[in-house]
Amino acid sequence: MADRFSPLQLFTRVVELGNFTRAAHEAGLGQPAVSKQMAALEARLGTRLLDRSSRGLRPTAAGLDLYHSATRLMSDLDEAEARVRDGAAEPSGLVRVATPPALGRMYIIPRLAAFFAQFPRIEIEFISGQRLVDLVRDGVDVALRVGELGSSNLVARKIGDMRMITVAAPDYLAAHGTPTSLRDLFQHKLIAAQTDGRIVEWRFKGNEGTISIMPSSALRSNDGEDLRASVLAGLGILHGPGALFHDDLEQGRVVRILDHYTADVSPIHLVSSGGHKLPHRVRVFMDFLAATFATEPGLQML
């Protein structure tokens, strides 16, 4: 197996796995041999590629640039070899996708049958969770992210917007009354979304300007489906993503309130590390996601 690992291939696995020992085990080499090859690669290129510390290995700026170039090159080569070997014109291989759990389950997975019918040689692996994945370190091809993006070397493609709405179950409103102003919310049971352990502020725009509310809540979650279930159970009022409640609103299971205030709109992006050099299989899946989000009624609540 060792002969499959050129120094450049070995370098990409060191970056992804974070240490020499795991990369050596995967390559069928000894750890000193891997360390020696990385030192030789750095000497040949005349620059340090890896920062070494007690916490592991991280690529330098030059190392990260080399990693991106090398992974794109190897992905293109793998795909070209697969087409020649199998005589297949269509894209093939594994696409690893990171997505918020609720969006994946509600809007992506139910539509995958059509994608697989068109691209039967592609495999999809979902990495679902609220944690912001490191695309390079976690080996993720594309991530679906909601909200403003921070600065990074990643390539972002905007595919839509998501509006925040304020909702409650009819039974809750019948028992506790319907708030008509933001001040009324303080007299109600509120359900809060949280991310990274912090409660997400509620932001509204009205005649008074922009108003932020930090909901005081005995019930909070970082999972969209938990938040939706809490509203349906009549546990309180939620200010959250409208995409969670499209069908519930149409069926009368929840009621939209405080509509005279304009709520925040959060952009939806597909984020990748490969830019225009992405493998064909990743590009077609990103196109599928973009088309899905452009036509899905639950994501067009603007």
Please identify the top-level CATH class of the largest domain.
Alpha Beta
Q: H/E order of the elements?
A: HHHEEHEHHEEEHEEEEEHEHEEEH
Distance between the termini: 54 Å
User: What level of helicity do the residues show?
Assistant: 25-40%
Low-confidence stretches: 1-5
CATH architecture of the largest domain: 3-Layer(aba) Sandwich
Q: How many β-strands, per DSSP?
A: 15
Fraction of residues in β-strands: 25-35%
Q: Tell me the domain tally.
A: 3
In round numbers, the mean pLDDT is 85
- Global outline: elongated
Blueprint (SSEs and pairs):
Elements: H1 7-17, H2 20-27, H3 31-45, E1 50-53, E2 56-59, H4 61-86, E3 93-99, H5 101-108, H6 112-118, E4 122-128, E5 142-146, E6 155-168, H7 170-176, E7 190-195, E8 198-199, E9 202-206, E10 209-213, E11 219-221, H8 224-232, E12 237-241, H9 246-250, E13 255-257, E14 262-263, E15 265-272, H10 280-295
Parallel strand pairs: 3-4, 3-5, 7-11, 7-12
Antiparallel strand pairs: 1-2, 5-15, 6-12, 6-13, 6-15, 7-8, 9-10, 9-14
Helix pairs in contact: 1-2, 1-3, 1-4, 2-3
Characterize the structure shown.
With 302 residues, this protein is an alpha/beta fold. The chain folds into three domains: 70 residues, Winged helix-like DNA-binding domain superfamily/Winged helix DNA-binding domain (Arc Repressor Mutant, subunit A, Orthogonal Bundle); 105 residues, Periplasmic binding protein-like II (D-Maltodextrin-Binding Protein, domain 2, 3-Layer(aba) Sandwich), CATH 3.40.190.10; 104 residues, 3-Layer(aba) Sandwich (D-Maltodextrin-Binding Protein, domain 2), CATH 3.40.190. It is 37% helix and 26% strand. The strands form three sheets. Strands 3, 4, 5, 6, 7, 8, 11, 12, 13 and 15 form a ten-stranded mixed sheet that branches. Strand 1 and strand 2 form a beta hairpin. Helix 1 packs across helix 3, helix 1 packs across helix 4 and helix 2 packs across helix 3. The radius of gyration is 24 Å and the shape is elongated. The N terminus is likely disordered.
